[in-house]
Structures are given as C-alpha cells and as structure tokens.
Amino acid sequence: MDKTNANLLFEKIQKFDNIIISKHKTPDWDALGSAEGLRNIISDNFKNKNIFVVGATLDGTGLIDDEKLTPEIIKAALLITVDTANIERLDFENFGDVKESFRIDHHINNTPYTDFEYIFSDAIACTQVITLWANEMQLKISKTAAEYLYRGLLTDSNRFAYRNTDERTFEAAKILTRCGINVAEITQDIYKRTLRQAQWSTEAFGRIVIDAETKFAYIIADYKDIKKYNLTNDEFKSALGAMGNIIEIDVWALIYELTETSGIKVSLRSKKIDINKIAMKYGGGGHLLASGGYLDSWDDLDAFLLDVKNYLKGEK
Ligand SMILES: [Mn+2]
Fold first, then answer.
1. Which tens digits make up the pLDDT trace of 75-124?
2. How far is the centre of ligand 1, averaged over its atoms, from the C-alpha of 154 (Å)?
3. How far apart, in whole angstroms, are the C-alpha atoms of residue 10 and residue 5?
4. pTM above 0.90, yes or no
5. Contact 128, 106 (CB under 8 A)
6. Cα–ligand 1 centroid distance for 31 (angstroms)
7. What angle do CA 314, 123, 133 make, to 5 degrees?
8. What tens digit of pLDDT does each residue of 161-203 get?
9. What's the 286 CA to ligand 1 centre distance in angstroms?
10. How far is the CA of 169 from the centre of ligand 1 (A)?
11. What domains are there in the chain, each with its CATH number?
C-alpha cells in the first residue's frame, strides 16, 4: 500500500483547492508539528491552495483556523488528519461534511475512519511519516516546515531514545537538518521549564503510588492542580514522562482531569509490556507502550487500578 498511497496522497492534494488539516485533541508537538509542517509543504509546493489547520492551539487557549471555515469550504474540502488514532480523538466536529478524507498516521490502525490512509504504525512520529513522504515525492521542505516537523520527531521519540527510533528516524532527522534548522535551539526551546512546572513535578512525584508486585505506578491529579500551578496541558503532563526512567517502575499512569468538566483521562506508559490493550478497554488506544483511555467518574478508579494490576500479573 505504501508506494501507491504515497502517490495517491500527492494526487489528492493536487486535486483539491480546499484542504483542511486536523489533528488530535489536546495536541502535542507531533500533532501540531505534523499539521503545520504539512501546511507549509503544501503551500510551498502546490499553487493556489486554501489550507486550514483546525483545532486547538498547543497551549489549549484557542483555535487555529476554525473561524475561517464556511460550510461551502468544508463541503468541497479534502480533510487530512494527522497523528490521530480514532475519530473520537479527532479535533474537528465537521468531519462528516468534507468531500474526501485522508489519514496520515503512525498509530496502530484500529478502525479506519477516513477514505484513504497513509499509515506506518511502527514509525516513531507522524512527522517522520510526513518528512519521508515529502522527500520521496521530491517536495521542497522549507526551514519553517522542517522546524515544525523536527519538533514532532524529537518529542515523540523522547530525544531519539524510545523503541521504534530507527534508521528511518535518523534519515528523517538528516533530511530536516539539511533544511537549515538549528537543532540545539529547538531542543532548548522544547525542554525549557518554568519554576512552576518544576514545582508541580516535585509535588507530582510526592504523590506516586507504586504497586511493588507489578511495578505499576500512578499519579492522580485533578483540575485544581493545573489551576494552582497555572500550567498548560503539556506542562501538566510532563509529570508522566518523569516516571519513565525509574528502576522500580515498569508501567505507569497519570490519571487526571484537565478542567472541571473535561472528564477523567488516563495516560498509560510502559517500558515493555503492551498496555494498549488496557487503554482500548477504557475507550481509548494509541501505541503499544504509550496509550490512553478514559474513566467515567472517580468512582471507577479502584476498579481500573485493580484491572491494570490483574492484567500485568497475567503478563509477567
Ligand atoms: Mn504522535
């Protein structure tokens, strides 16, 4: 499918005047970098395209191009979704009104939700898929596009450290570096922290509960924590990454609510054991080692924790 769909993606972009790029809710750098990187690649290489990146900004305070859309534009548009495993995660309500849809992704392919797909489920980042596609299609990648794409590559691979970081990852990094990006500056910009964030991290670590038998650890947080420390979603979720290099922990979770009404989200991470199965059981999904799901209320917490522990016992 790969070669054919690479060409098909090119042809669809060529054919449509209106292109909407949508990513997942509460976007991270891979989602936003994919969307903005692709926007730049399309506008630099194809003439007369109206391109709209929709959904929340990275800091969650607003929407990107949503206000520029009209029903007429949507009806005539090609929708390209990036970095989004399923329709529930898609940050675009008018999904059903577009003319055609194409999914570019690196998530495990659960239920197809678009007309066409370009998916490499073992790619470390969606921006890797886009970078290698653009290169294969001999498209120009501007410095601006490369900066966006590199941000996704760096963060989804955790600075080239996670499994699935492979030769294609470094190939993509090489392509992007050749576009003139400043690797040191981007890295510094992404991993800088405020004192508030460091303080939240310390508090979060103080709350860790570890089940010694299964090496499962979790942190519980609610919207009051976000308010108290005045954090963005990304800053808040950084407590999750911080658990990843602790010897006593194999599988870990951040169980949290972003706002009073957002509902309870579970973000699961694992060093080796497939935790995607658990996440799917709780209405979510993602990757084998990084996935997430939802709880209906805090009353379901104990049952969820027990479920995870029982599952991990079975896997050991
Ligand atoms: Mn991603």
1. 999 999 999 999 999 999 999 999 999 999 999 877 899 999 999 999 99
2. 11
3. 8
4. no
5. yes
6. 6
7. 160
8. 988 999 999 999 999 999 999 999 999 999 988 899 889 999 9
9. 9
10. 13
11. 2-190 (3.90.1640.10), 195-315 (3.10.310.30)
